[in-house]
Amino acid sequence: MSTSSFGEPAVQELEHQLDPDTTGTQRRESQPRRKVKRKTWQTIIWFVVLIALTALVLYPLVWLFFATFKPNAEFGQNTGLIPENPTGENYLKVLEGIAGVPMWKFYWNSLVLATAAVVGTVVSSALAAYAFARIQFKGLAVLFAAMIGTLLLPFHVVIIPQYLLFNNLGMIDTFWPLILPKFLATEAFFVFLLVQFMRQMPRDMDEAARIDGAGHVRIFWAIIVPLIKPALITCAIFSFIWAWNDFLGPLLYLTSPENYPLPIALRLYNDQTSSSDYGATVTASFVALIPILVFFVVFQRFLVDGVATQGLKG
Amino acid sequence: MTTTSTRALVTGRRLPKGRLMPRRRREAPAQRPGQRRRQIRESLAGYGFLSPWLIGFFGLTIVPMIYSLYLSFTRYNIFQPPRWVGFDNYVRLFTNDPQFMQSAQITLVYVLVGTPVMLAAALATALLLNYRDKGAGFFRSAFYAPSLIAASVSVAIVWRALFSTDGPVDNTLSFFGIDLGGWVGNPDLVLPAMIILAVWQFGATMVIFLAGLKQIPKELYEAAEMDGANAIQRFRAVTMPMLSPVIFFNLLLGIIGAFQVFASAYIISNGSGGPAGMTNFITLYLYKRGFSDGQMGYAAAIAWVLLVVVAIIAFILFRTQRSWVHYSGDNR
């Protein structure tokens, strides 16, 4: 994240070089000079405004990054960006963990939960989406409308019965209440996204396959799944990030610290040490964000395009 | 004169002039022998593929919804069986629970201020980015980053630090001679800090707006320009109507999402909903009643009030969309 704020001038420079409009060399002959000049000015203002806005939007993240190097004594005195006496001490403290549980354990728990969420969501959502988009059956319209309806349903209406259900099944303080629903396509967003994507696929290929005697399982696996790979990847990335960030679910279902994923572990820092050990709290927050930031840098094309084409929220 | 047949009376339909009997339904084409079996096979396949979703839909959504409706009419603390109390919980919510009234009020303020401001920021930035393609990709990604993590605990902790007494925000404002003190501990300012957090995640909405803007045919702008429309007129006559389905979509999802804010309120207030109950959003209040105080029935009633409010707002939005949402023919 930190590099992006430093990289802006470089990007601007690059854009200027790449863009013939701003240098004004190409249009000079065909258009009056004044118009070119006006265009150049507009572009410069455009860049300046957007760079200022970027700085404002990314400031909290950049601040977080630098704050991880501040010694405890500096919090409260130096609220600026750059630490006066940078130290790596916070990271050492965070590595030790909290409440007798080492940091890697929280990480591992988060990783297990997020990975299970990805597998469950992608498999179950793709199956449901195939049925909605590609099979004609009785009750299709009603069920599809119901699925869309769950998009608008506040999740909190079902948390109490769901809690009671998993309590009766003896699953409190296990990962099951957090994993099982993912395998049942409860996140309507992903089903909806995949339905939209599958509907765009031309029907010729699967009709040809049907004439050749292929059944739905075969068509799904051999034709549709390879074709919708980009959408599946988008689903996978988003379900990973959502599971990684999830707070309410683990807060309800997990009771012993060795089962905590990162967000709940962060709560421990926040509750117990907010006054005394600010450095560790902030650093743990940053450490918890690293996978998401890496995901973002690596997959940002997929993420942004996925949102743009399907209207998925972050 | 129109004649009304018995059948039309039953169905309430009037026949066209000069027709005494309703037109006989055209006979269904004779079914080929294998067709019915194929239909059954298709249905089986459909329900087979749908089975995980169906189990989840009934087991984790429909049945729990019905059960929570039932619970909302009971007193229930997990340890003793639910005891039916009729409308007691609802009556208490609206007549004898100042905490709930405050909670509903701040949640509404958060939704009704935060969502429109966030949409406006998203739309303004999208228009700005749409001005030029080159270089826009970088900014698009930069603005999008916060919306991935805005709901995370990490960001709530950062927010607490940024808006605390002598925090960066406080210090910057002091530099300009505005002395507000810390926001997080101040009942008057903690809600604005939460709204700023909501606005900060405008990126996802902006990307959707930008995609919508890119789909508006250039000819419309050219035609408007030819008619002598200036930038503001073009925005009102072309951009707004063409973008209205996207605005509707973002508004609906933004409002529903804002009603459900939880993690940031929990972290910023250490789970208390403070200061002075000003971060006690409806979901946090529900959590505290149900899971801290063990009043499951009461919490279920809160959940149903939330559901009804969200449903009413969605209904109003859908009803009014005819007057302001413009769907062109080629839209899906």
Explained architecture:
The complex is a heterodimer of chains A (314) and B (332). Chain A is an all-alpha fold and 314 residues long. Chain A has 2 domains: 40-87, no CATH class; 96-308, MetI-like (MetI-like fold, Orthogonal Bundle), CATH 1.10.3720.10. Chain A is 72% helix and 0% strand. Chain A contains 15 helices and no strands. Chain A has helices spanning 2-18, 20-23, 33-67, 89-96, 103-134, 140-152, 156-168, 176-179, 188-200, 204-211, 216-227, 229-245, 248-253, 262-273, 278-310. In chain A, helix 5 (103-134) crosses helix 12 (229-245). With 332 residues, chain B is an all-alpha fold. Chain B has helices at residues 6-11, 35-71, 88-95, 98-130, 136-149, 153-162, 168-175, 190-200, 203-214, 218-226, 231-259, 263-268, 282-292, 296-324; strands spanning 74-75, 83-84. Chain B has a two-stranded antiparallel ribbon with strand order 1-2. In chain B, a hairpin with a 7-residue loop joins strand 1 (74-75) and strand 2. In chain B, helix 9 crosses helix 11 and helix 13 runs antiparallel to helix 14. Chain B is flat. The relative contact order of chain B is 0.11. Residues 1-15 of chain B have low confidence and may be disordered. Classes of the chains: A mainly alpha (314), B mainly alpha (332). At the A-B interface, helix 1, helix 3, helix 5, helix 6 and helix 7 of A face helix 2, helix 4, helix 5, helix 6 and helix 7 of B.
Features:
heterodimer, A: 314 residues, mainly alpha, MetI-like fold, 15 helices, 72% helix, disordered N terminus, B: 332 residues, two-stranded antiparallel sheet, 14 helices, 2 strands, flat
- Spatially, the strands of the biggest sheet of chain B line up as 1-2
Strand content of chain A: under 5%
- Please name the fourth-level CATH homologous superfamily of the largest domain in chain A: MetI-like
**Major sheet summary line of chain B:** 2 strands, antiparallel
Quote the CATH topology of the largest domain in chain A: MetI-like fold
- The computed structural class of chain B is mainly alpha
The radius of gyration over CA of chain B amounts to 27 Å
What portion of residues of chain B belong to β-strands? Answer: under 5%
Category from helices, strands and their pairing of chain A: mainly alpha
One letter per element, helices H and strands E, the order of chain A comes to: HHHHHHHHHHHHHHH
**Overall body shape of chain A:** flat
What's the helical proportion of residues of chain A?
over 70%
Q: SSE order of chain B in H/E notation?
A: HHEEHHHHHHHHHHHH
CATH architecture level-2 label of the largest domain in chain A: Orthogonal Bundle
- Radius of gyration of chain A using CA atoms only: 25 Å
How far is it from the N-terminal to the C-terminal residue of chain B, by CA?
42 Å
Principal-axis shape of chain B equals flat
Q: Describe the biggest sheet of chain A?
A: none
- Mean of residue pLDDT of chain B? 86
**Uncertain parts of chain B:** 1-15
Q: Count of helical segments of chain A?
A: 15
